[in-house]
Amino acid sequence: MSASDSRELRIVGFLCNWCSYGGADTAGVARFSQPTDLRIIRVPCSGRIDPLFIVRALINGADGVLVSGCHPRDCHYAEGNFYARRRLETLKQFLSATGIDPRRFEYTWVSASEGQRWQHVVTEFTRRIHELGPAPTMSHVSDGAWFDAAAPAAAGQGCPCHG
Amino acid sequence: MSKVAYYPGCSGQSTSLEYDRSTRAVCAAVGLELVDVPDWSCCGSSPAHTVNHVLSAALSARNLDLAHSLGVDVLATPCPSCLTNLRNAAVEMEDEGFRGQVNALLDRPYVGRVDPQSVLQVLVEQVGVDEVARRVTRPLTGLRVACYYGCIMNRPPERMRFDDHENPMAMDRLMEAAGAEVALFPLKVECCGASFGVPRGDIVARLSGKLLDAARGLGVDAIVTACPLCQMNLDLRQGQINAALHEHFRIPVFYYTQLLGLALDVPRSELGLDRLCVDPRLALGKIKAPAPVR
Amino acid sequence: MRIGVFICHCGSNIAGTVDVVAVAQAAAKFPEVAYATDTMYACSEPGQEAIVQAVKEHQLDGVVVASCTPRMHEPTFRRTVERAGINRYFFEMANIREHVSWIGKNAERNTVKAIELVRMAVEKLRRNRPLIPKRFDVVKRVLVIGGGVAGIQAALDCADGGQEVVLVEREQSIGGKMAKLDKTFPTIDCSSCVLGPKMVDVGQHPKITLHTLAEIESVSGYVGNFQVTIRKKARFVDWSKCTGCGLCMEKCPSRKAPDPFNEGLCTAPSINIPFPQAIPKKAAINPDTCIMKQKGKCGLCAKICPVKCIDFDQQDELVTVDVGAIVVATGYDLFDWHKYPQYGQGRYPDVITSLQYERLLSASGPTGGHIKRPSDGKEPKTVVFIQCVGSRDRSVDRPYCSGFCCMYTAKQAILTKDHIPDSQSYVFYMDIRSPGKGYDEFTRRAMEEYGAQYVRGRVSMIYPKGDQLVVRGADTLAGTQVEVAADLVVLAVGAEAARGAVTLGEKLRVVPDQYGFFVESHPKLKPVETNTAGVFLAGACQGPKDIPASVGQGSAAAAKVLALLSKDQLESDPQVSRVTPARCVGCGKCVQTCPFGAIKLVEDRFGNPKAEVVETVCQGCGICTVTCPQGAIQLEHFTDNQILAEVNALCPPRIRVNYAS
Amino acid sequence: MRIVDLATADQDFIAEVEARSHQNLRTCYQCGNCTAGCPYTFVYDHSVSQVMRLIQLGQREVVLQCKSIWLCASCQSCTTRCPNRIDVAKVMDVCRHMAREQGYATEREVKLFTDAFLRSVERHGRAFELGLMADYVLHSGRVFTDVDLAPKALARRKLAFRPHAIVGRDQIERIFQRFRKGGAHV
Q: Which class is domain B2-120?
């Protein structure tokens, strides 16, 4: 099923200002058509993304969350994306424990010049989310339990920056 | 001792019987065990793939399956044309859709998971040039040769994944190991006219003539080949080429296994030197310490 | 709060696939929105004026503009709201062009998406705070990295503008690629005659400090206050004494190493001055080939030197400078043509690069300006030029056009005829790209006046025959294969990013594109700026460029630097982290994670450790905000509450089952 | 000279060649490198790069009736050196397949030799040179083909007088039978 001819799903993107937001701009300037499901929240750096933002989006009913930052070593703030990588990787591992399909969350690296790559990332991720379908209502899990389960990731447990 | 499946190819039964025999002898001499693919059939050669890729792959698939049943990883063939067909089939059948079409032509679905390689590749990569050099007892000192690989042994590189595709060196290195002097042949991978010998002899005359001319310009005693079709075009058809181009080429064209066999002191009866059309005796006379005739 | 929302048509760019009127109507119903309208061009003069008027008319204290990317016009609109009397951080932008109208064709979906993006912006704006920038002093000095023609121009313009300049060059002399060229197109000016005086000016300018044989070790700081460490490599010669007399070069017994200045066409002594016009004209020892450095004996140069300036024990030296701005002018390198095995991979000595050919043409080159082919020194009568070697070729990952090869090949064909009147040149080309002033006329002259035979097609292979090289190509205009026996083959090798560019980019926080060329801030409007404030680009480090374009960019970068350094103080971006001392437990995790050392631990009046942000040092990345276990440190303008408000705007919270438990 | 009406480009033809060869033909920018390296250009009626261009222009009849597609030996020079990584030899192969299917045989001898070869394989499981030569001579009527080589070849025992029939030759026969029945298109 193509993403464009079915009902739109709710996909939230967190993009760093310098690379991936620029990459999305580049894709737009080049008129690289993309599925329209994604809504982008701009943050200065992928290192600014608190795993709790992602968990919050998913609890609130987002069908997918996509994070994108600068390629490793290319971070505008030198090392923000390294912190992001560790946090997001930890989050990924914890997600399944909460009952959320970890495939609903993905992170990737796209530079400001990579418009085509951005188009590809959005298209593929949207396709994946449409294959998974709308996120199930999580009424059987308590909201608080979710946060409890996600807390280690959010607090960056197993992440060196949190000691 | 390394063990590989062996696919001689149709020409090894007739026009290039000496290539098959000398290949077997050389491999035995360097400790490479060849296990014949039982009841192998024709790979389809160029005619099959020029008609249809599924048909071509089906003809190869049967052989890949038979080789697979021997429990080896590598299927070695001396013939680059067979190699191309077998390799293309093996790679393309990784695609499920294509494999389905091929299976529709076969009695049993394809299972073969062997890697088709040229005997030359196996010799260089599994035995090693140094090991071959170590076993040389009668070096070809004094013999100056040009190595000609033919067009499809190494091309396209992504598919063949062996040696440099513009300047392959495997045969050059083996000939050096055998003690011969190797002239850098700039037309190593130029096509000789391939299988147009029968229907369009004029094409072969022009293309193979160009190769002979380049070899003559290098002042070599002989050309060394690894392809039955190339050898046939350059050797058997050398007279036709001379007639068509008003030339007087007289360059013997060896299989590399024949010269390697001489250097490894393989019995001459296994090398079939008498089956070459252009008399090789003058060239062999250049070898400083000629191998004794057995 | 009273928020005004302005939905831009951007002509038909947005209005073509977004119902802007519907978006404005929807926005009018959002909380705290007092006014919503659509506007033709929000960024135009009347568009901005309408915003100012609306602010006054409707007593607005916050503005949302839904138009293009904030990376383009956020500063524009911030100034607009400031003109209207609002703090400039009470402004938010919704990107409904690049992220909506230009990528989706379905008007209905686009409109819904635009509404949601506006909703997000409104929710964020409701939680904004007024921010006031701090001021800090600017270091009035500029660093120029790279001493090619672009860097030279930037350095001279900055110095002439009254600023102190530190010029760092990796090679022993400045001059770059241009110093190696014989003549320049389309005027056939002598390259060293044009460049030489500029090099001398650099050497003599009282405002310019030159470091050659030097590289950037590290960079820290921010616009107006960079700290740069420069590694001056050991040259084993005391340059304060060396007079450049060249006696050492004559006597050096080690002269087998290929001469890099002459592109390996000849050899150079181990102690060497690269070329007669070198600036600085000082000798340096190559430790890899020097017999004394390798074997511990020789020292002939030390004995012969009249001023005793040889110092075999010299070590690398680190120099630190403070600068307010940086110009990157690191140029390009030549494509390694050995990636084309069909051109011989170096097996044929008479297949050379275009830059090697420049050295053969140059009067100061290894053949004294006589074209002699490398194999046997014979004068070639048939010269074949092959264009696009490493350009416009996906198979070697160089799909871009190098831009200047068509022109220099035409020049070389002309010069060949000048040098050898009975010669014939052949040029294999795919397309002739000569869009500069006087350029196309120049390539026509090569064909019409100088008789160069242009052949439209690529060359498939080169092979030797006798003492010639057979070049086999195509003439696609004639529709067939062509062959020509050449005495010399010149490969018009393309340009690629300078080696080391990526590493340097990491230090400067300037991003390279996928081929290693540095990315400018905006391809149209900010061609010499980068995304790192205070770092500018000039010349071919941004992409292949010819000399006039490089010089133009050198001057452009200098103009940007001069404008920046004309201010005594700069405003720091107030979008920085802020600590709520009451929540801070002084764990110091933020101090450890801050990449800029912008956070320090101080004691409050009770002796408790508390984090404190140095506002002018903080770059506003927000890594600390995520790190803080207490939520005590928040990045202004991107606080947790603001981002969560955006999340909630997109995904409204569901009924909370058992939340209390 | 033939005038090409650009508006009547056969889009189905372009699509079919692309689908069967798995190549993006639009990436060809006519640099001519395929023609430059092709050893067979001298016998072609349209050079390889022209064939590529004619496909881009949707000129089905011109391409399928040209001699070049029959004279390509699949030597891989074009494929190996294409700057746009197009498998040109495969495109040539596919054009020949399509020409065959549509009953063209512009180079009759080449087609007859191919047919004779495959008949030999179908019959014996392996190629039987003497038999296929006889077959080819019979079908082509070129009775003197290579008769000059016979003494040399026979003296050196290069030609077997009997086919090397294999046990599983009925399996090969069935491959051909199924192929003809299905008329597989790839």
A: mainly alpha
* Residue C385 CB neighbour total at 10 angstroms: 30
8 Å CB contact of C656 and A163: no
Amino acid at C526: K
Smallest CA-to-CA distance from C407 within C384, C431, C423, C373 is with: C431
D69 has pLDDT over 60:
yes
> Quick one: how far is CA D2 from the chain centroid?
25
Locate the DSSP E strands across C45-195.
62-67, 91-95, 135-137, 141-145, 164-168, 183-184, 189-190
For B48-80, the pLDDT digits (tens) are 999 999 999 999 999 999 999 999 999 999 999
Residue with tokens 């006031």: C132
Q: Are residues D59 and D143 in the same domain?
A: no
Chain C residues near residue A27 by CB distance under 8 angstroms: 98, 103
A149-162 mean pLDDT: 51
Domain B137-284 class in CATH: alpha beta
**Which among B167, B187, B214 has the least Cβ separation from residue C345?**
B167
Which secondary structure element, helix H or strand E, spans residue C579, and what is its range? strand C577-579
Structure-token match 């026969």, residue found: D173
Distance between first and last Cα of chain A:
45
Q: Which helix (H) or strand (E) holds C560?
A: helix C547-565
Helix (H) or strand (E) holding C74: helix C70-83
Share of chain C above pLDDT 70, in %: 99
pTM of the model: 0.89
Q: How many Å apart are CA C147 and CA C130, to the nearest integer?
A: 45
What CATH code is carried by the domain that includes residue D80?
1.10.1060.10
In this structure, CATH architecture of domain A8-138 = 3-Layer(aba) Sandwich (3.40)
Residues 148-177 of B with CB under 8 A from C: 164-167
Cβ within 8 Å, pair D49-C395: no
DSSP-derived pairing of the beta strands A64-69 and C284-285: unpaired
pLDDT, tens digit, for every residue of C88-114?
A: 999 999 999 999 999 999 999 999 999
Compute the distance between CA of residue B132 and CA of residue B126 in angstroms, rounded to an integer.
11
Name the band, by pLDDT with cuts 50, 70 and 90, for residue D158. confident
Q: B with C: how many residue pairs have Cβ under 8 Å apart?
A: 18
Cβ of residue D158 closer than 8 Å to a chain B Cβ: yes
pLDDT in tens, A31-45: 999 999 999 999 999
Instruction: Tell me what the mean pLDDT of segment C457-466 comes to.
Output: 96
Provide the residue ranges of all domains of chain B, joining segments of one domain with +. 2-120, 137-284
What is the percent of chain D where pLDDT is above 90? 67
Give the chain C residue nearest B158 (alpha carbons): C395
What is the Cα–Cα distance from C163 to C160, expressed in whole angstroms? 7
Mean pLDDT of the region B124-145: 96
CB contact under 8 A, D117 and B237: no
What is the predicted pLDDT for the residue at D185? 44
**Percent with pLDDT over 90 in chain C:** 94
Which CATH code, of 3.40.1740.10, 3.50.50.60, 3.40.30.10, 3.40.50.1970, is assigned to C141-233+316-331+498-565?
3.50.50.60
Is the pLDDT assigned to residue C656 strictly greater than 60? no
- C-alpha count within 13 angstroms, C-beta hemisphere, residue C613: 30
Instruction: Please state, in angstroms and rounded to a whole number, the distance separating the CA atoms of residues A112 and A23.
Output: 4
- Cα–Cα distance for residue pair D117/D124, rounded to 1 Å: 11
**What does the pLDDT average to over B237-259?**
96
Provide the residue range defining the domain that includes D133: 108-179
* Residue C320 DSSP SS3: strand
Asked if C456 is an interface residue toward chain D (Cβ–Cβ < 8 A), one would say yes
Residue D183 pLDDT exceeds 70:
no
Identity of the residue numbered B248: H
